Amino acid sequence: MMNEKKIGELVRETVLLVQAISEMQERLEQNKAALVTEAQARKSEGRKTEGGGLAVAFNGEDSMARVVFPGPKLVSFRKTDAAYEKISAAAGTFFKMLFRPTTSYKPVKDFREEARLLLREGKQAETLIELCEEKSAPTVSFEVVEKFVDDWPGAE
Predict the structure, then answer these.
(1) What DSSP element (H or E) covers 33?
(2) Burial of 69: CB neighbours in 10 Å, binned 0-12, 13-18, 19+
(3) Domain map (residue ranges) of the chain
(4) Is the pLDDT of residue 144 over 60?
(5) Shortest CA distance to 83 belongs to which of 22, 127, 28?
(6) 94 and 88 in contact (C-beta within 8 Å)?
């Protein structure tokens, strides 16, 4: 068992750690926000991701940061959702080919490509795709590298 002095020291150290972590967390969020802002300004330097998004990378002396702007993700919907009628109308006669019924309607694999193929009228396909997408927030990741290499994923 600890004595009162030891408990007091432990409490004090814990409070200082919580304060330091809080301050560092705030600074981390500020740094990430600054990197996202910089990446938005440099989107032309980014690389496309497999999911239709974009990654912008920054190099440090012994580390790197990558800001990923994910492509819009496809969302499922229910027949009772407000968007159902618009989506159904946009898909037209191809609705059953583009969506598989579950408890909700989930876009089929390769939905975007299938919609563009089936709905040859470009505007109708793009309208349908947009109705089925949900924007995603950018993410920031960091790596520490022992030796800087120019060909890591996302390098300019």
Answers:
(1) helix 4-41
(2) buried
(3) 4-71+135-144, 76-131
(4) yes
(5) 127
(6) no
Pairing label, strands 105-107, 99-101: antiparallel
- Quickly list DSSP for 85-118: HHHHHHHGGGHHHHEEESSSEEEPTTHHHHHHHH
| CA–CA gap between residue 79 and residue 89 (Å, rounded) | 13
Q: Would you say 69 and 39 are in contact if contact means Cβ atoms under 8 Å apart?
A: yes
**Token pair of 38 as six digits:** 């910089």
Contacts of 91 (CB under 8 A, 6+ apart): 98, 99, 115, 119, 128
List the strands of the sheet with 139-144, edge to edge: 47-48, 54-59, 63-69, 139-144
CA distance 46 to 156: 7
Residue for token digits 């408990």? Answer: 7
Helix (H, G, I), strand (E, B) or coil at 144: strand
pLDDT for position 15 = 86
Confidence of residue 69 (pLDDT cuts 50, 70, 90): very high
